């Protein structure tokens, strides 16, 4: 574990810098990465994804969950790579249906660089929400450390006196991620060369095609929780 942490810490400054660049200008940064990979193929996006999974797992371990960090890292790695591969395919199909053509690898790269910052944004809001919970309902916060099943954790949080501010912060995080994702969607338009109108229809189609994948990931998360 120490070797893993050392490797993550060594790459962390570059990772944080890249996340900042993606957040400040997702289309510009991702376009530069795509252009670079077209000239010289690399595994930079895979490293970025691996660090995203490792960092979010380690941050999650700081919250009350009752989960073993090694089990969490293994399950997050499996579901993380699987979900990126699955939804990259779904997104590529949605663009193909509106006339967009680009290699699958480029769709994978775009989604990877969008997921990293989105995961960090989510972590910030989750930490804020749990901070509120710990401040105003320490008993509930401590009880969560003994529970791993998602359903049981949800029932405990719903019964908390701090539930309303907790859920408001969580939804604020969802809103922030949604805004970032919509802005970042333009990166797909860059690699396909299509209009904003076709991009809009690709977004709608992608949303519909993603429903089965989301259900599948939900069942998987229930199984490993």
From TrEMBL:
<keyword id="KW-1133">Transmembrane helix</keyword>
<protein>
    <recommendedName>
        <fullName>Yip1 domain-containing protein</fullName>
    </recommendedName>
</protein>
<keyword id="KW-0472">Membrane</keyword>
<feature type="transmembrane region" description="Helical">
    <location>
        <begin position="156"/>
        <end position="188"/>
    </location>
</feature>
<feature type="transmembrane region" description="Helical">
    <location>
        <begin position="110"/>
        <end position="136"/>
    </location>
</feature>
<feature type="transmembrane region" description="Helical">
    <location>
        <begin position="200"/>
        <end position="220"/>
    </location>
</feature>
<feature type="transmembrane region" description="Helical">
    <location>
        <begin position="45"/>
        <end position="63"/>
    </location>
</feature>
<keyword id="KW-0812">Transmembrane</keyword>
<feature type="transmembrane region" description="Helical">
    <location>
        <begin position="69"/>
        <end position="98"/>
    </location>
</feature>
């Amino acid at each position: 574990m120490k070797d893993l942490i050392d490797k993550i810490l060594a790459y962390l400054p570059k990772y944080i810098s890249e996340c900042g660049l993606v957040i400040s200008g997702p289309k510009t940064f991702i376009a530069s990465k795509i252009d670079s990979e077209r000239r010289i193929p690399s595994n930079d996006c895979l490293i970025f994804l691996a660090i995203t999974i490792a960092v979010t797992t380690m941050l999650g371990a700081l919250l009350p969950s009752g989960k073993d960090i090694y089990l969490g890292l293994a399950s997050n790695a499996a579901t993380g790579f699987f979900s990126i591969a699955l939804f990259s395919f779904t997104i590529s199909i949605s663009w193909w249906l509106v006339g967009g053509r680009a290699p699958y690898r480029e769709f994978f790269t775009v989604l990877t660089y969008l997921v990293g910052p989105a995961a960090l944004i989510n972590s910030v809001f989750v930490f804020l929400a749990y901070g509120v919970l710990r401040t105003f309902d320490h008993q509930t916060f401590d009880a969560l450390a003994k529970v791993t099943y998602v359903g049981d954790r949800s029932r405990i949080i719903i019964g908390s006196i701090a539930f309303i501010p907790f859920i408001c912060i969580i939804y604020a995080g969802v809103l922030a991620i949604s805004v970032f994702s919509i802005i970042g969607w333009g990166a797909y338009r860059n690699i396909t060369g299509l209009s904003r109108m076709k991009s809009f229809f690709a977004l709608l189609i992608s949303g519909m095609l993603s429903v089965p994948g989301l259900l599948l990931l939900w069942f998987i998360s229930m199984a490993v929780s």
